[in-house]
Write a structure and sequence with these properties.
Elements: H1 2-5, H2 13-20, H3 28-39, H4 50-57, E1 66-71, E2 93-98, H5 105-108, H6 110-122
Parallel strand pairs: 1-2
Amino acid sequence: MWEQWSPEWDFDDATFERSAMAHDNPDYVDVVIHSYRHRFGLAAGDPRYADLQRRLASLPPISVPSVTLDGDKDGVLPASDGSASASKFTGRRVHRVVRGAGHNVPQEAPAAFAAAVMELIRG
């Protein structure tokens, strides 16, 4: 998936191995499958979070300062100018398309991620 979702990310074996340790968890497969099924409305969520899920589903505006980033090599969601989601933000927002990054911009392009955060902080 990393190669498909982030085709230009040149991760090394050590990075892959650190992430692969998660697969050693006996609940990993059940948790991942349930997560995707829940995301697509095919499974119920944890009842402890039902109220929070209901409130989030109403899509309240995001009023806190925010950074949104799209990688221009994202194999999951194509990069955009951010205008489609702009109405969801009422607070200060910085949106950037990061060249050469895929689906996981903070890990693939940490300097670009940090620069966007600093831009937001500086106003």
